[in-house]
Amino acid sequence: MNTTKLQQGLDAAFLERVEKIRHLMATRNLSAVVLRKNPNLAWLIGGRVHVPSVLDMACFDIVVGENSIMAITNVIEAPRLAAEEFPNGIDVDVINWWQERDPRLPHGSSIGCDNPGADRIDLSSEIEVLRSSLIAADQARFAKVCEDAATALGNAMKEVRADDREVDVAARITNAMWRADLEAVFLGVAGDLRVRKFRHPLPTTQLIGSRVVASICARRKGLIASVTRIVTFDAIPQTQGDEYSRLLQVESAIMDAVTIGDPFAKVVQAATKAYQKFGFNQDEWRQHHQGGPTGYLPRDWPATLESTRLIAPDQAVAWNPTAQGWKVEDTWLTSDRGARLLSVDSGWPTLKVGGRSRPGLLLRP
User: Fold this and answer.
1) β-strand pairing of 340-341 with 330-333
2) 362-363/223-232 β-pairing
């Protein structure tokens, strides 16, 4: 696709998202909506919104009016945003770097916002719902992000050596991710001494030993893929191989429960039953969240037994059952025909579980 057609596609997708906002405005009888949160801004523009990746707030705000779209940012960020991130159709209000953006934002009871304050109407939940069903252009974009993330992680894991430290594994993964134009939002690595102790193992200088589990949340232009892969260096005992096989059965029960229009709580209910059914402690599910909706955050929120929000069509979800040092995790898109796997790596060993292609354990010499 040439540059002109690509830009036209990006602009059309942007306007489709804007229309979602304007429909909400009309429904709530609002004159404008202010977007301030990172995931919502990334969704709207289809681009990067951060500078330091650790900040909750973006480097700009956007005001969507009935006939206008205005971004407020400072003189440092404005040239780059206009050249590399903003679709056509956004006007830019540039302020000095020492000035605050807040005074430039409209306020009052006729203004909606995804961040409470300034007498604006809180639309936090409504905006999250708007971006939960990905439009066609974002589905295609996300599928590519997820495939590239899975492949980058897989390629890095194939280079891991038994004498690597966990931080060495992290370095291999990070290098592979950046080479694939992916930012590391989360990176967990655990060798055999730590993998049974911690569910979110940040990498250390510990040697990995005979097994390593690595998990990533990889971001490109706001969209985030979640993937976990496991490498072993010894032929694992049958009992441990059985543990991983049974965990895949737990995941299969979780995936069977993912039905559009049902509450997310139903999926967690299926998980609570599946652990015991497949030979794990009945309270295993209490040791770690089981996953939930994703896309523009690693998880919008972890699904619980009390989650009343309904599973939406074309919604990105990531489930991550764990037990006894094993974990399985991929990113999926909901559909009427069952969830579709997005984080596909054709070079990784797979096996069929419940009719789905699932990651196997990679045995390294």
Assistant:
1) antiparallel
2) parallel
- Residue 325 DSSP label: T
246-264: per-residue pLDDT in tens? 999 999 999 999 999 999 9
DSSP string, 147-190: HHHHHHHHHHHTT--TT-BHHHHHHHHHHHHHHTT-EEEEEEEE
Secondary structure class of 51 (helix, strand, coil):
coil
AA identity, residue 291:
G
Are 248 and 241 a contacting pair, CB within 8 Å? no
Q: Distance from CA of residue 298 to its chain's centroid?
A: 4
Helices H / strands E in the chain, number of each = 8, 18
Q: Does residue 125 contact residue 138 with C-beta atoms inside 8 Å?
A: no
Which CA distances in Å does 159 have to 124, 163, 169, 184, 364? 43, 12, 9, 19, 9
* Domains of the chain listed by start with CATH number: 3-132 (3.40.350.10), 136-363 (3.90.230.10)
3-class DSSP state of 286? helix
Largest CA-CA distance found in the chain, in angstroms, rounded: 65
Confidence (pTM):
0.95
Question: In this predicted structure, what is the pLDDT of residue 23?
Answer: 98
φ/ψ (deg, to 5) at 95? -115, 165
Enter the tokens of residue 225.
């893929």
Give the residue carrying structure tokens 């909506």. Answer: 33
Per the CB < 8 A criterion, the answer to whether 275 and 284 are in contact is: yes
3-state SS, residue 281? coil
Backbone angles phi and psi of 71, in degrees to 5: -105, 135
pLDDT in the model for residue 1: 47
Closest by CA to 350, choosing from 361, 335, 340, is: 361
